[in-house]
Design the sequence.
């Protein structure tokens, strides 16, 4: 086969005709050893895997399709002939997939401009996705185009015909990705917004999930083609299959599972009053509403992806989980989209918290400007309106129903280790002085002490990075955290609630200087070190009331985010109060808790599945 020259685009295209002469190599030669059955012949709905692949290529306008056979070729050949595709047998298929790529390329027509390479393992790729890749290649600025969805590359890549001759000359024991990397050709990506480019079936379990999902898609498309207004809802397994295919982060999946538990519980309670309500649609919408969470405009993107799959009702429900369409009529009825919206707003990651707490945590986490905070308030207000309608129908407060929601085991995070550390020694005069909220810096010796601390922490974690680092926003603690972050990894979050106790007028003074300056206040504190505040400052009771709620919220958020290792850099007084709280000690015992500079205390945090409303109970203990 000779290497073709550049191919000019035709002046006009007929409907359905691709923008260039393209071919396809379908890889169907493998052993299917893990599957136990030949992949090309596996049923997926009403068609086999090979029939689906060839059918999509045909519908995309690809005329020249070469199916490469190998293992049990005699079983696959009759189907290839019936489909009208070309067959190319790879006698050396044992050498691996790349040898089959070369066999298929050798059988392609010489006058093509480009060719797809599509394993039969990826049988649900749609004609629309293929056409998007062809259109991107036709722009003429790339030699390889990859389809992408949710920021991930999928199948099949489209290669310029210029690669044909080099492929035939390559080592058959190589692989396509490495081959393309050595050629240094111009690459491009086509954002097809089509999850089918990410779906494959490498294992029996993956095949079973894919087959079930294919059946759901077939049912949806058949009903759409027949003009039916009904749309089958995806099952929970189908939705989780899509989340896995999209490699949705586990903390996002946990949030979706928890929202689904809430949405399903509310929908089931309403079903007796609103028989037309689709509980399955609510559950699927809750499970999939954040499938594109890490990308901009994620609600709209998720809706477009689901619509492209032929699931317009589900797309509409998911697309409105951030903002309810103001064009929709506002009536006394309750829609599936409203229930997904409400469920999302009552859940923070994997915890059911209610609307007020969700708003407070979102603002605390985002630290938004006034405009963004206003948008958050508007969304919570919309959720309150929906909750009011639900309460009116049920004759009971929504919060009572939320308290009864039982979370699935998968929504309950595992344990987390928290490393509680006092900052390194700051610069300043020696001696016993009150160091409160003055913003002292570390200096050279303190910085070296922080680096030593980082090395110690690396030993304690086995070299693993921290998922997150929280520190007081005072310079001596923040700088300690930054040094540990630089050496160990982990993003630093500076938290004002972690500041040291406010020493007021006594800041920077020695004990004798404080006694001489304010003798009456000094005597009062000596009589009650816990309850009496510093003049113009805080008491240890005040400190406890400030830091304990922040600590508990931090633990809940970190668990919900799926964190396993968290570092907290605090101060002597702060850490003493937290450790007394964790150990259940009276506040008067804080002064017996040692906290030298760079002292490390390891805590084990876990959320159990019991507790009020099944939301889980957080326990903390020393390790």
Sequence:
């Amino acid at each position: 086969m000779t290497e073709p020259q550049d191919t000019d685009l035709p002046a006009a295209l007929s409907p359905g005709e691709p923008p260039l002469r393209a071919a396809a190599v379908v890889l169907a030669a493998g052993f299917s050893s893990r599957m136990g059955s030949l992949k090309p012949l596996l049923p997926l709905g009403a068609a086999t895997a090979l029939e689906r692949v060839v059918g999509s290529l045909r519908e995309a306008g690809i005329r020249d399709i070469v199916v490469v056979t190998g293992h049990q070729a005699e079983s696959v050949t009759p189907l290839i002939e019936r489909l009208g595709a070309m067959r190319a047998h790879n006698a050396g298929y044992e050498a691996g997939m790349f040898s089959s790529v070369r066999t298929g390329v050798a059988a392609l027509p010489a006058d093509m401009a480009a060719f797809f390479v599509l394993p039969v393992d990826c049988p649900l790729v749609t004609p629309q996705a293929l056409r998007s890749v062809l259109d991107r290649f036709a722009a003429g600025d790339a030699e390889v185009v990859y389809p992408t969805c949710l920021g991930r590359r999928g199948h099949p890549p489209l290669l310029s015909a210029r690669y044909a001759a080099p492929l035939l000359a390559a080592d058959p024991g190589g692989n396509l990705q490495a081959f393309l990397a050595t050629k240094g050709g111009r690459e491009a990506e086509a954002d097809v917004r089509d999850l089918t480019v990410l779906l494959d079936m490498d294992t029996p379990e993956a095949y079973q999930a894919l087959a079930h999902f294919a059946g759901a898609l077939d049912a949806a498309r058949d009903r759409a083609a027949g003009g039916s207004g009904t749309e089958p809802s995806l099952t929970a397994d189908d939705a989780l299959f899509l989340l896995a295919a999209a490699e949705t982060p586990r903390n996002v999946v946990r949030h979706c599972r928890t929202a689904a538990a809430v949405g399903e519980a509310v929908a089931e309670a309403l079903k007796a009053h609103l028989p037309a309500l689709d509980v399955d649609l609510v559950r699927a919408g809750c499970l999939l509403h954040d499938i594109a969470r890490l990308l901009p405009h994620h609600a709209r993107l998720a809706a477009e992806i689901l619509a492209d799959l032929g699931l317009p009702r589900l797309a509409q429900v998911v697309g409105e989980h951030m903002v309810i369409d103001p064009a929709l009529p506002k009536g006394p009825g309750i829609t599936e989209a409203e229930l997904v919206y409400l469920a999302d707003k009552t859940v923070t990651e994997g915890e059911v918290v209610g609307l007020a707490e969700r708003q407070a945590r979102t603002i605390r986490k985002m630290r938004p400007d006034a405009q963004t905070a206003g948008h958050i308030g508007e969304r919570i207000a919309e959720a309150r309106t929906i909750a009011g309608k639900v309460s009116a129908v049920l004759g009971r407060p929504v919060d009572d129903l939320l308290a009864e929601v039982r979370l699935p085991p998968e929504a309950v995070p595992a344990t987390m280790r928290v490393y509680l550390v006092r900052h390194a020694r700051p610069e300043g005069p020696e001696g016993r002085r009150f160091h409160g909220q003055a913003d002292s810096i570390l200096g050279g010796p303190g910085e070296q002490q922080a680096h030593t601390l980082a090395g110690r922490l690396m030993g304690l974690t086995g070299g693993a990075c921290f998922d997150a680092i929280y520190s007081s926003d005072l310079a001596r603690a923040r700088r300690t955290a930054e040094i540990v972050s630089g050496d160990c990894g982990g993003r630093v979050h500076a938290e004002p609630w972690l500041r040291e106790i406010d020493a007021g007028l006594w800041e920077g003074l020695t004990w004798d200087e404080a006694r001489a300056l304010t003798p009456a206040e000094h005597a009062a504190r000596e009589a009650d070190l816990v309850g009496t505040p510093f003049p113009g400052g805080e008491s240890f009771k005040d400190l406890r009331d400030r830091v304990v709620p922040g600590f508990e919220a931090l633990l809940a958020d970190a668990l919900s985010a799926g964190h396993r290792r968290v570092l907290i850099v605090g101060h002597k007084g702060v850490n003493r109060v937290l450790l007394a709280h964790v150990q259940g000690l009276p506040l008067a015992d804080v002064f017996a808790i040692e906290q030298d500079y760079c002292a490390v205390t390891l805590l084990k945090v876990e959320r159990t599945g019991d507790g009020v409303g099944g939301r889980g109970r957080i326990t903390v203990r020393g390790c």
